[in-house]
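hey m, so remember when u said the tokens were messed up on ur end? i reran from scratch. heres the input so u can diff it against urs
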Amino acid sequence: MNRIACLVSVLAVALPAAALAAELGPIEIAPQESGVQMTRFEKKTEALYNYSWNVKRDGGKVVFSAKGDNNKSGAKRIEWTENSVMELNGSSLRTLSWSKDSTGAEQESWKLTYDWAGGKVHYNYQDRAGGKKESKSVELGSTAFSSDAMYFMLRGFPFEQGPGARIDGDFVLTNGQVLPAYIILRGEEKVTTPMGTFDTYKLEMKLKGALGPIAPKMFMWFTKDKPHLFVRYDGKEAGITSGKTVNVLLKFSPAEWIKPLPPPAPVATP
């Protein structure tokens, strides 16, 4: 799929290199987590993509799995699965491997395998229908982030520093491309989702270099309550020329980790 959301792939979250670990707080992941998300165009109610995921953590080992579809039927339907293995150590969440396989109108497979000791990521891609293949190794610097783990890593963002707090790095996309960018805290907002209304922190992701001025705006909202869960993303997920999209959290478990604000009290009639 041609989705700019590969920058912040729904669950999608990140992996800080050692040089940035001091800027992040502890990343909390439950022994078992699951969520359901839906992407739609900003002014539409119909889903553009449906997405559900599960996480299992055993000590420092984190196993992530997900499945999604493009909300179409017949010959236009696409379904995909994702699988990842990560290592969690305090404020460091390191992706070891991340893979995706799609079926239906799109039949693609890709895999990223990280060699952090060697400072490289290996990328393999195959279009099973068209026969196209690609394989490459990309050098990783000391400020590399794995964007496929973005939403989990940002649970450790230094929110307590207030507006202007930021994390800079080189973000590895799902196609093996590396883009310099930063994530900055813009402030606090109340955000309403199908799960309810939340007090949140608003983050913006900004690309550096020549792409910065033309890149679409990308915003993410995380609950103020720890462990700072992702609840919404605004950006583009169907290509740069498409309309603005909204990605919202529909369900989350464990339920005690996410606390919507109580509804306002009814106004008494005189």
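this time it looks ok to me. Residues 150-153 form the longest helix (4 residues). if urs says something different then somethings off w ur setup not the seq
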